[in-house]
Amino acid sequence: xxxxxxxxxxxxxxxxxxxxxxxxxxxxxxxxxxxxxxxxxxxxxxxxxxxxxxxxxxxxxxxxxxxxxxxxxxxxxxxxxxxxxxxxxxxxxxxxxxxxxxxxxxxxxxxxxxxxxxxxxxxxxxxxxxxxxxxxxxxxxxxxxxxxxxxxxxxxxxxxxxxxxxxxxxxxxxxxxxxxxxxxxxxxxxxxxxxxxxxxxxxxxxxxxxxxxxxxxxxxxxxxxxxxxxxxxxxxxxxxxxxxxxxxxxxxxxxxxxxxxxxxxxxxxxxxxxxxxxxxxxxxxxxxxxxxxxxxxxxxxxxxxxxxxxxxxxxxxxxxxxxxxxxxxxxxxxxxxxxxxxxxxxxxxxxxxxxxxxxxxxxxxxxxxxxxxxxxxxxxxxxxxxxxxxxxxxxxxxxxxxxxxxxxxxxxxxxxxxxxxxxxxxxxxxxxxxxxxxxxxxxxxxxxxxxxxxxxxxxxxxxxxxxxxxxxxxxxxxxxxxxx
Amino acid sequence: xxxxxxxxxxxxxxxxxxxxxxxxxxxxxxxxxxxxxxxxxxxxxxxxxxxxxxxxxxxxxxxxxxxxxxxxxxxxxxxxxxxxxxxxxxxxxxxxxxxxxxxxxxxxxxxxxxxxxxxxxxxxxxxxxxxxxxxxxxxxxxxxxxxxxxxxxxxxxxxxxxxxxxxxxxxxxxxxxxxxxxxxxxxxxxxxxxxxxxxxxxxxxxxxxxxxxxxxxxxxxxxxxxxxxxxxxxxxxxxxxxxxxxxxxxxxxxxxxxxxxxxxxxxxxxxx
Lengths: 484, 272
Fold this sequence. Notes:
heterodimer, A: mainly alpha, two-stranded antiparallel ribbon, 2 strands, 72% helix, B: mainly alpha, 0% strand, elongated
């Protein structure tokens, strides 16, 4: 099976290889991202001006915040992971996604369930701890729909005609697998005492550091090669990055709650794993940057490589900071402050968004036979997203640092006038930062809207270009080929 | 020679240096000449179609990992030169692509490592389970290994209702109930109790936009330091927060029903 450019347009039905599931899920993930970014704005505005709409229960921070995180992690991350899996897997294993309709239907059903779940959180309140807030009635159907990509990817791999050991494929396998695994793990009821706390730690850490960025990183390793025309700098280096991430990200999870009720030795493990997380992030950055090394002009000019590069750099910086937050000395200062909120905001709004848009700008033209519409607008959107997201994230982190330092100072001095705890006498220090983050999130939202507008106009009205058609050339007997 | 290489690279849609290396490996594996391989790839012979790997240079690391694996290679159709592809100015009907019908041993191979999905899944699942054991199951069964003291202060039934209101309103996104044995938490009361069956870890919270509420029921009054915080004071804080903190950021929850407010206040008072 190969990919072929044929002179086809958007009307093509061809040999049935039109990747409707991929393009449909790409657009769905764009909508989820837009909704998540809009809710993020509202959440931060609410944080800066808590008295706004204070008589409306569903517009309280306690409802908006879980809705935002759920939309970004489950909505945007989940649908994007499916789109990436259905695009990359056929190309990497040399087979075709045979069940386009099933894939699209499951993806849309998944998206619909996420929307219903978030509406339930918004109007009826969260039903559990962070990232496990969906009502129980939603949890298990959602888990079942998460298994569809696992089954389809497995099916494609089983009928593969290509034996290449591609790091992108590893990330995709990991991403489609980690989502249901983490979700099911967190949905298991009946653990008393400290159990739910541990489940929550693993769920939140795993979703942010592992499941959400995995598909985006897989796409980055694929797109950088395809767009630059250069081979990956080092396959072993890239694979080392993946396995390091897969090995340590979950173990680093309790770091956020360092000093919490878990036994001491879990802290030691998470500190060691945090160091591994830093290594993994730097490896990913090195892998992409060295591949592009010497070809920075292309990187600056290409509407695909630019977001890819910025997204990778942002991912590396944020993940290094996440790892550093796991050290005891750091956690004693920034733990339970908005520092972590700043990191995950940056991860979602800058790193994963930029990588996802790079992938969509690469894949959408190939799956729809439409030229990328208005790359200039896309670049402008990228700049706004990066700047807005960076200031939003930075202000929240600065707020967290300020809060943590004053808590320590107050405890040491006995004064107990803690900045960032909502008391009137201490609000001046953080009010400015919270306001800055809210304003900057509006800029990021505008940037994301421009990026999504570019994707939408590409889909709807882009000029025709060669469409990539997947062609199955053989129906090999895998066992005979000795592929296993 | 370079024309031939360029033609082959164009036909394969792969960088010339990769095509060159691949052709050398293929020539060596087949016992043919480098030129004949290039010629066949450039369109001269039907027996040398490109591998999907050629379209996936990702796996071609700079290290010379060109390993012929003829038995496992898929057969691909002859490439369509981009120059031969008409790019329509408007959407047109698709051109079916005819696939080559047979396998070939002459496929250029640009990959070094073979993908072993079963092993990959086993390792991924193993890492996940290991994390589960170390992160959840191990600590959960650790018993006496816990650092914090165990005690259990049961809530009244109204307090239980109040806890539901607390969770339902998302109070845990601004307030924690998690006192850590760190300098920052000195003065917040005894460290958080664990291992009690009635412990609701959902109330541990996420971050502190507002103060920790672990022992809010036994904290000094916000208005005078002499007495403990009273239910009436907490009710005022919930319904008219500006009367307690004129420039504070706590929003009003006056929209809650009287019953919910009473339950919530009872719950907070019982957090001692």
